[in-house]
Amino acid sequence: MQPSHVHVRVPPDIAAKTAKTFSILGGPSMILGLALAAAVPALGYAFPTTTQPMRAITAALGAVNGMCLLGSGAALLLGAQSISDGYFDVARSGPALRFLHWTHVGALFSVILMTTFSTMSLNTAVPAYPKDAAVGFLPATALYLVPPFAGGILAAINGVAGRRLLNPARWNKYHR
Fold it and tell me: pTM for this structure?
């Protein structure tokens, strides 16, 4: 339930700590998200899979994962703007909270789909592509899936922390 007031007074030490948390999580998330969005598709085309379409699907899902992590970091930095001058602005926190929710859900969903398609393509041979054969699960493939998993976990951490810090009900205890 949204409070009837738009601005909630926040103690300065709590406001500073919250803004620092947003910047500690948001900035590195954006940098890692951009790196994932570029590196995972590039590495995906280097790994042998059974079909070219599966390789393209897993590379695209890796890029989506990186962009979702980038978006969750941007949402945290946007959410930091809702706390200024000792006040929490409820109206400003809403869009950041919704964007954060969708980006962390998208990152988790894309990493699940990427893992599914990647393992599915490595363990099957398709007769339509006679030159390609079933490759099997290699250690390099497991290492290829680590960065998207890390991105999904970091996006989930961003989502949980952002939801806790941007929830208007959290700040109501200071409004008295």
Answer: 0.82
